[in-house]
Design goal:
Number of strands: 0
Structural class: mainly alpha
Order of helices and strands: HHHHHHHHHHHH
Strand content: under 5%
Radius of gyration: 21 Å
Shape: globular
Oligomer: single chain
Distance between the termini: 76 Å
Length: 287
């Protein structure tokens, strides 16, 4: 049992001690966050890969597929998996080893963050990352050489699936990783908070690429339609000049880049049909 006093507002303390005690040398290593993130990413993707490859006849799942006519094949999985593996081995791993050599182990705080600190820092980190990547992502699409050089590989698939999440040019992977890693540092966050944000960001990123509109997904229970989820990002791959914001809808709606998404089974809402009709009229006026 820890021999230091624990403030009464540290609800997360038992969980933090369960994670930390006896593992300080491993958790304090500069390599740990990278190992944790990469391992968790592969674990998060695996169930959806199984559904895509082996669940083609599982009607109870496939009825929620957004672009139901688009089939995920083993060559597609192999291509995206290979690029993901190559990026991590050739770029992420060397950078991590260099950090391990030059940076001393991280001393772990024996006291957990308060639940309030933990919650508001994660929520604000998501909001800042969402804005950060909205700007970066918009530039990738609006600046032609950036799209061709950095972002085009991610749009080789107009109907995304889970492995497309990190099917990225290595520099885009680094740009995404920079935001995920350093934004919580703005608040001098506890390492437990930082690690939690990194893992939650992976969950949200993978979910936005799975290509399924599951009824229990987060975008169905967020109020006021502020969160886009898989349908919104699926529409971005279908109509690449829309829906640049990775998770929420606020900036896209304010700036005018929002497109209503398709739902399960490719259902087009009246809002989406109206959006497409308006775009057809605009194209006709140009000619």
């Amino acid at each position: 049992m820890a021999n230091y006093s624990i403030p009464n507002d540290r609800i997360l303390q038992p969980l933090w001690e369960f994670i930390k005690d006896g593992r300080e040398d491993y958790l304090g290593s500069p390599l740990f966050p990278v190992f944790m993130s990469v391992t968790f990413y592969f674990v998060a993707v695996l169930p959806f890969m199984i559904i895509d490859l082996f669940g083609k006849e599982w009607h109870w799942v496939q009825r929620y597929k957004i672009q139901s006519s688009k089939e995920v094949t083993w060559p597609m999985v192999k291509q995206t998996l290979w690029v993901t593996f190559w990026n991590h081995v050739m770029y992420i791993l060397p950078a991590s080893v260099a950090q391990w050599v030059w940076q001393p182990p991280l001393p772990l705080d024996p006291v957990a963050p308060t639940l309030f600190e933990y919650t508001w820092q994660i929520v604000l980190s998501f909001a800042i990352f969402d804005t950060y990547y909205y700007v970066v992502h918009t530039l990738f699409h609006k600046v032609r050489f950036l799209y061709r050089w950095l972002h085009a590989i991610h749009h080789e698939y107009h109907s995304p699936f889970s492995w497309v999440t990190q099917y990225l040019h290595p520099w885009e992977l680094i740009i995404v990783g920079f935001g995920t890693t350093f934004i919580p540092w703005l608040f001098d966050s506890h390492c437990f908070t930082i690690w939690s944000f990194m893992l939650l960001n992976i969950i949200v990123a993978v979910e936005s690429h799975i290509g399924f509109d599951f009824p229990w997904a987060a975008h169905h229970w967020f109020p006021l339609g502020i969160y886009g989820g898989a349908p919104k990002h699926d529409m971005h791959h279908y109509k690449p000049m829309t829906n640049f914001q990775p998770y929420f809808n606020t900036w896209d709606k304010l700036v005018g880049t929002y497109c209503p998404p398709m739902a399960a089974g490719g259902y087009k809402s009246p809002q989406l049909l109206e959006f497409e009709a308006k775009k057809r009229v605009e194209r006709q006026k140009k000619f």
